[in-house]
Amino acid sequence: MTAARTAVRPAPPPARPAVAARPAHPAWLALVLALAAVFAWRDETSLDLGFHVVSGRWIAAHHAWPRLDPFTYTLADRPYVDLHGLFQLAAAFAWGAGGAAGVGVLRVALALAAVAVLWRTATRRGAGAGATTAAVFALGLCAWEMRFLARPEMATYVLLALQLHLLDRHAGDRRRRWLAGAVLVQLAWTWSHALALFGPAVLGLYAVCDTAVRLARRRAPDPAPWAALALGVAALFANPYGARGVAFMWELRTRIESGNVFAESIGELVPAFSPQTAGFLPVLAFRALLVLTVVAVLARVRRLRAFDVALVAVFGWLAATHVRNIGLFAVATLPVAAVAATALLRARPAVARVAAAATAFAIVVVAAAVVGGGWYSVNDRPMRFGSREADAVYPVGNVARLGALGLHGPLYNGLGHGGYVLLHLWPRERAFIDGRLEVIGDDFYHRYLALQSGAGWREAAQQYGWNAAIVPYESIALARAINADSSWTVLGVDGVSVLLARKPAVPQPVLDSAWTVIAARNAPVPPAAERLLPSPLPPPPARAFARRMFPFGAWGRGNGYAMLGLLHAARREYADALRHANGDERSLVSNYAIVCARLGRTDEAAAWFRRMLEVDPHDAGARRALAALGR
């Protein structure tokens, strides 16, 4: 009887084939890639770029990975666990080939590679290659662009996208070669970025979800994903430092924990829903993307893989708690969001047609705003479309001045400027500190933070024997403490820092020349002289689409002179910036008005405070300032 039943039992249905890849629609894909390229081609602003480039040079010159810090004179005996070697070699080559433009080309190439892999993953899963997928990707790029920095995480985006693509291929046809490819990706990731620890985490999440689904369907677990996980973990230990390198990757998590000195002082570690991120365009785009993804996934949850839902949950939480993870969220979830959104709109062709027109228009408008500078000016971001070194981020003028004067260290520099100092002065000079948290350590970082208040300046100067100091403007107390020391003098200011030097270390003609320039710039004039009044505002449409030029260098020099109490010099720098700016940036207009008021140029100050109210009638600060002027 049993045999008869077995004989007549119908054959099981064939396994569901993987969704056939749809031919990519060139217009929509081209629009998305163009938007990604426009976002990635921008002024260089990464504070870490310098030490990554010089690390790449060091590795290429020594054919080895560093073990002790070769770049600072304060921490030269500290272990340096460098897990970014492949990216650093690429960055060093790019910089050598074209400077900031070469690095910009590298950044664009990595961004395009990541987007192309994600697009391929989405379309082969049935997302469609049309407007809905393009809209999801465009929104994702608006959020993701804040992490388009010349840092190793650009390599992580490409490698994470590749690994997820290979896991998707395995989920479709169960061929183990895709898992083998994921392990090879993990190996490359291990040699490119410390965030390679995410690789085994993703492999483990995939193995758990795959096993849970098979058990729920009363099938035997597949050992292949677990074997890939084991090999992925083994690939982590293939880093240049072995077990020590893996331990370091794990220790990095402490830097983002509540109460850690780094987590409390580094802006990229704040939550995405904190007041600090209010009004920031990329974070607003992330919030919209998160809501869209969650709604679409919940609506299609029964038709999505358990692994998809887990990716959205895990990476959504990571991005919501720390803004630096927004890029990881985009990479992990864009294909999932595109698949779910496409399925929801497929039965609504009228909505889809409207969405197509709106998507094309929105992408073009956003791209135009990025090229014109308006996208960045909304949040006063110190960059524009292009490939130069951002003089609102780097001490461009003072590092060049230091090199031209031939003034040798030891040099004091702020943490954010250490990489730039290394980029242009190493190996002639070493930095006091730079952004490699893995080298700094908590104790030295506490000492550095204490120094910013100006306390202990004389003791530190005696300990390290400083001949020069490039002090960032945010360290106002320290700059004033050094300037008050009669044995030190100002040699110059630039967009972000003031250069001070110990007088005995500088030839007298150099000192005289520097102060001749500063004295001329700070020469007083009567209130009626050199007046600068606002010109009429252009119509709102012209303002919206005009290219927003902002002379960051002149504005920054004005800030430096104001910090040092050289108000006439500050007013001249701000005036130069206003003459060359074609948009009334609030920070520039406000600073010029304040300095004019302090110099007794009340009519001029009142005119610029009124300009602030023209631009924003709700500007309470401008109203208070006018009231104080009796206007």
Textual characterization of the structure:
The chain folds into three domains: 81-377, no CATH class; 396-517, no CATH class; 540-628, Tetratricopeptide repeat domain (Serine Threonine Protein Phosphatase 5, Tetratricopeptide repeat), CATH 1.25.40.10. The protein is mainly alpha-helical. It is globular. Helix 4 (85-124) packs parallel to helix 13 (326-346). It is 61% helix and 3% strand. It has helices at 2-8, 26-40, 49-62, 85-124, 131-144, 153-173, 176-190, 198-216, 223-236, 243-251, 281-299, 306-321, 326-346, 349-372, 374-377, 396-405, 418-425, 437-451, 457-464, 476-483, 508-521, 540-545, 552-563, 567-580, 586-598, 602-615, 620-628, and strands spanning 411-413, 468-472, 488-493, 497-502. The model is unreliable at 1-24 (pLDDT under 50). The termini are far apart. A four-stranded mixed beta sheet has the order 1-2-4-3, sandwiched between helices. The protein is built from 27 helices and four strands.
Q: Radius of gyration, rounded? A: 28 Å
Terminal Cα span: 104 Å
Number of domains: 3
Low-confidence stretches: 1-24
Q: How are the strands ordered across the major sheet?
A: 1-2-4-3
Residue share in β-strands: under 5%
Mean pLDDT across residues: 89
Helix-residue proportion: 55-70%
User: Care to count the β-strands?
Assistant: 4
Category by helix and strand content? mainly alpha
The outline comes out as globular
Tell me the major beta sheet: 4 strands, mixed
Number of helices: 27
List the helices and strands and how they pair.
Blueprint (H helix, E strand, L loop, with lengths): L1 H7 L17 H15 L8 H14 L22 H40 L6 H14 L8 H21 L2 H15 L7 H19 L6 H14 L6 H9 L29 H19 L6 H16 L4 H21 L2 H24 L1 H4 L18 H10 L5 E3 L4 H8 L11 H15 L5 H8 L3 E5 L3 H8 L4 E6 L3 E6 L5 H14 L18 H6 L6 H12 L3 H14 L5 H13 L3 H14 L4 H9 L3
Parallel strand pairs: 1-2
Antiparallel strand pairs: 2-4, 3-4
Helix pairs in contact: 2-4, 2-5, 2-14, 3-4, 3-17, 4-6, 4-13, 5-11, 5-13, 5-14, 6-7, 6-8, 6-13, 7-9, 8-9, 8-12, 11-13, 12-13, 16-17, 23-24, 24-25, 25-26, 26-27
